[in-house]
Amino acid sequence: MATQTVVAAQLLSVVLWVLVWATIFLLALILGSRAGRLWRERRDRQLIGELRPAMLAVASGEDEDSAALSQLTTVTRRRARVVDHAVSAMLSKVKGEPARALAQVLRSHGRSSWALRGLNSKRSIRRAYAAWTLGLMRERESGSKIIPLLQDRSIDVVVAAARALTLIGDSKAARAVVRAVAPRRRPRGLPSWVAVECLCAFDESAASVVTEATAHPQPSVRHVAATVIGTRPLPQAAPVVRERLAVEDDPRTLASLVAALGRIGGATDLPVLSRFAHHPHETVALAAVDALEGIGLHSSVEALAPLVADSRPRLSERAAVALTELGSRGRERLLAFANAPGPAELPATYALQLTAMRSATRGLD
């Protein structure tokens, strides 16, 4: 028994010493990492110090004699890495001639060839950074080499490739972007907002691809296509949108199609939008209310008025607010609802009070 107690005490002592040394090691590691980061930041500031005015001159387009550009393209190899990081950060915020000049700085330091090699790297972070760098430099000829990354096994690489193609603006990649939305080798596809941003950046030659995508078997792809049609917008896609509204069964896509029709449709679409304003799925009904308000015709008042008495609070309030934006006729209907007991009384009163507060705020401004 005494022997067991001694062994247990020795084991406990060893464990405590291990914990003490592990704590010391972790503290040293944290402090060392922080000190190393601070040292690198100070070194980078020193290396880039006198070059910052030249970078600002190029980025602002004030380098008329190209003296600042020449200074940046002829830096030493030691400074080139720091300059490249600073220039890359600026490239995401500028366009036109300043962007081309900054890209020339990166090109002179061999950054373009470095990025092209990186597209085939085994490390996903290297592939993503390489694609993003080529996008920042607007290297149009590299678009065909970035497109295969839209099917990369890493979603981070896929997003970086899509955003790079957005900056490059190569509409030949439109079909590949649409395919990337539908997951194939990956658990999930390209996020919808990235795909929409990308497809909206392409020229008109991508419109046919977007229109075709409204009939894709994947709901996520159809949703992206419908959103792009309404966001760009693409008036030539109106007939296709009307056809798809009759057969679409995905609520999210249906809401996007209704919203798109509100942007690219006209008076002839009011009956269709009025029908969808009574849709059982609230998201679709709300999109139809927005579309009816957006079209802004007198007949929209007749379509929206019954919805003020809807049993769904969000829908009834949204319909009431939409009526306040449709002129005196819409406000007259709301006043009638507000003065008569019933389910439309509260939404109508809310919308009228909201309009009064907005008017008072505008008066103060």
UniProtKB/TrEMBL annotation:
Keywords: Membrane, Transmembrane, Transmembrane helix. The chain crosses the membrane at residues 6-32. This is HEAT repeat domain-containing protein. It comes from the Bacteria. InterPro entries: ARM-like, ARM-type_fold.
